[in-house]
């Protein structure tokens, strides 16, 4: 059930990190003996809300440089999986490992572990400028470097001219790019994208795809939840399909396209999308 | 004309203090969505610390610094100890807790220090400087005006230009999202309370030597006026607190000067009621504050 790396090129050791000491040596990883420790490994994850089991024994892993997509019908548990990884919901059982070590229980520590996330609802701050948004994620470098880093990130997303605009005055596609820039500003090592293409037009989706590929090529692991099936299957290295909180299929986009169970559960319903 | 000038100048100095205290209420409102009715009682508690330290060391400035530090610590204790447990479902919960705090603090002060009004010496001369035969402003009032405006400018810089200020604003606006961005949202709320308590204590300490005197209830009036200012300006708006404070200060000074001191509190309440009738959210309120 676990995702495997798409190529040997990504088997290189992860970049040194502050918490490298807590990471087991690559020679003896706990989950996947043939591969280096995945950046994110989810194993036997079960989340229940009262009597409702939102996730049932879900497992997947994302390697450095890999793009893994979680797809599935509404209510399949995709966002719940994100929330569990972020420490926003407490799992009933199962393990969530970042570089082989347990993920922090508090969301505010995720950034320290190189984990960034975008939200379905964007979660932008009305009244703050575009630049403020990119300067907010902690930890920030001291002094002038913070501003320079933020400006460079805005330029990368074509937002340089909008830096001083209050964010609520921007059109939706630009707001969406602000949210992405905010996630990417600290060069995260694991990027969680919750419906990044939602509400975007074709050109914006193409630009988004290029950005995500670029980020992954830089060694960042990307976990993606998305309804736009063509976008997902064109972008992801591996796809994990959830239905009613269970993993019903996992594999390459090509394999997923031909999977009968997926067809029945999900893709068939998306014919109009 | 001479009289008008004098009343305007002292009104501005007093108004700056009202603005400062109102700003402290705005700070807490923005950080925690609580109208802190205990702000006055917390400030007077800090003023007693300042008074005791000044009596001990003989230095007004050491007393002032100790009072501000005590206020910040009290803000920390109140936020961590009680206010954190206020229900977010209803604003009433925080209000009731705050009123309880007022009773506890004022009773404790009454037991420890008694109800008598203690005179507190001002660090500067309180008699007005006369320029060309016209009395303008006492050196102490000038000091009050400068300190109040400087602190407000400092707060504007803190919130507008620094990383800490950005985090304070973000955590107040959307704590959950802020956490995902690495902001320690709970710590930001605590810092907001500490900052606010210190600002309120400063306002009280500035007004106690000339106006209020020191007893356990001496900030009650200040709180009522500042609350009126904050509501008039819009609880969400620092600019509203500043303008509202100056307007109320000058209005009170003019009413006191021309109509008599007993009319002034009534004038403030008339202003409060008038504004609430016309603009329930306050003159400077942001749109979301009115619909909230």
Automatic annotation (TrEMBL), chain A:
PANTHER family attached to this UniProt entry: ABC TRANSPORTER ATP-BINDING PROTEIN, CONSERVED COMPONENT OF ABC TRANSPORTER FOR NATURAL AMINO ACIDS-RELATED
InterPro entries reported in the protein's UniProt record: AAA+_ATPase, ABC_AA/LPS_Transport, ABC_transporter-like_ATP-bd, P-loop_NTPase
Entry-linked PROSITE patterns: ABC_TRANSPORTER_2
Biased composition (Pro residues): 23-36
Lineage: Bacteria, Bacillati, Actinomycetota, Actinomycetes, Micrococcales
Domain of life: Bacteria
SUPFAM superfamilies per the UniProt record, alphabetical: P-loop containing nucleoside triphosphate hydrolases (SSF52540)
Entry keywords, A to Z: ATP-binding, Nucleotide-binding, Transport
Annotated region (Disordered), positions in chain: 1-38
GO molecular function ontology, one term from the record: ATP hydrolysis activity
Organism, as annotated: Agromyces seonyuensis
Name used for this protein in its record: ATP-binding cassette domain-containing protein
Domain ABC transporter: 40-269
Annotated Gene Ontology cellular component terms: plasma membrane
Ranges of biased composition (kind: Low complexity): 1-22
TrEMBL record, chain B:
Keyword hit for Nucleus: no
Entry keyword annotation includes Cell membrane: yes
An annotated Gene Ontology molecular function: transmembrane transporter activity
Entry membrane topology: Multi-pass membrane protein
InterPro entries: ABC_transp_permease, BCAA_transport_permease
A Pfam family it matches: BPD_transp_2
Gene Ontology terms: cellular component: plasma membrane
Biological process (GO), any one: amino acid transport
Membrane-spanning segments: 6-27, 34-53, 59-78, 90-113, 142-160, 191-210, 222-251, 258-278
Subcellular location: Cell membrane
Keywords: Amino-acid transport, Cell membrane, Membrane, Transmembrane, Transmembrane helix, Transport
Source organism superkingdom: Bacteria
Annotated family: Belongs to the binding-protein-dependent transport system permease family. LivHM subfamily.
Name of this protein: Branched-chain amino acid ABC transporter permease
């Amino acid at each position: 059930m676990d995702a495997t790396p798409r190529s040997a090129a990504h088997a290189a050791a992860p970049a040194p990190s502050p918490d490298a000491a807590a990471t087991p040596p690559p020679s003896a990883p706990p989950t996947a003996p043939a591969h280096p420790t995945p950046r994110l490994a989810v194993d036997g994850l079960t989340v229940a809300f009262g009597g409702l089991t939102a996730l049932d024994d879900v497992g997947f892993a994302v390697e450095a440089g890999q793009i893994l997509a979680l797809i599935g019908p509404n209510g399949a548990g995709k966002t719940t999986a994100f929330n569990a990884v972020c420490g926003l919901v407490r799992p009933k059982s199962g393990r969530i490992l970042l570089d082989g070590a347990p993920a922090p229980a508090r969301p505010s520590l995720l950034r320290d572990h190189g984990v960034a996330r975008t939200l379905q609802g964007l979660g932008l701050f009305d009244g703050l400028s575009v630049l403020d948004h990119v300067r907010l994620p902690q930890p920030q470098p001291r002094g002038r470097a913070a501003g320079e880093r933020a400006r460079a990130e805005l330029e990368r997303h074509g937002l340089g001219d909008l830096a001083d605009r209050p964010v609520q005055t921007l059109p939706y596609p630009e707001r969406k790019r602000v949210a992405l820039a905010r996630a990417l500003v600290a060069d995260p090592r694991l990027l969680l994208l919750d419906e990044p293409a939602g509400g975007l037009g074709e050109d914006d989706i193409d630009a988004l795809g290029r950005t995500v590929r670029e980020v992954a090529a830089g060694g960042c692991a990307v976990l993606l939840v998305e309804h736009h099936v063509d976008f997902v299957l064109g972008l992801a290295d591996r796809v994990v399909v959830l239905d009613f909180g269970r993993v019903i299929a996992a594999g390459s986009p090509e394999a997923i396209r031909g999977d009968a169970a997926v067809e029945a559960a999900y893709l068939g319903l998306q014919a109009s999308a | 004309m001479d009289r008008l000038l004098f009343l305007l100048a002292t009104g501005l100095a007093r108004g700056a203090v009202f603005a400062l205290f109102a700003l402290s209420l705005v700070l807490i409102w923005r950080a925690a969505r609580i109208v802190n009715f205990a702000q006055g009682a917390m400030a007077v508690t800090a003023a007693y610390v300042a008074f005791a330290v000044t009596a001990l060391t003989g230095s007004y400035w050491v007393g002032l610094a100790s009072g501000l530090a005590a206020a910040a610590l009290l803000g920390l204790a109140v936020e961590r100890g009680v206010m954190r447990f206020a229900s977010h479902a209803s604003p009433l919960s925080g209000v009731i807790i705050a009123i309880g705090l007022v009773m506890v603090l004022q009773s404790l002060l009454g037991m420890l220090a008694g109800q008598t009004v203690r005179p507190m010496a001002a660090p500067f001369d309180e008699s007005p400087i006369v320029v060309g035969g016209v009395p303008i402003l006492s050196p102490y009032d000038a000091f009050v005006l400068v300190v109040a405006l400087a602190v407000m400018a400092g707060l504007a810089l803190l919130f507008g230009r620094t990383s800490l200020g950005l985090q304070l604003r973000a955590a107040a606006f959307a704590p959950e999202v802020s956490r995902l961005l690495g902001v320690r949202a709970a710590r930001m709320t605590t810092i907001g309370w500490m900052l606010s308590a210190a600002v309120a204590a400063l306002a009280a300490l500035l007004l106690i030597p000339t106006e209020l005197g020191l007893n356990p209830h001496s900030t009650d009036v200040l709180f009522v006026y500042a609350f009126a200012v904050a509501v008039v300006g819009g609880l969400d708006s620092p600019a509203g607190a500043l303008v509202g404070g100056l307007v109320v200060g000058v209005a009170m000074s003019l009413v006191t000067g021309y109509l008599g001191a007993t009319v002034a509190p009534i004038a403030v309440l008339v202003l409060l009621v008038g504004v609430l009738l016309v603009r329930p959210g306050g003159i400077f309120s942001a749109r979301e504050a009115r619909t909230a």
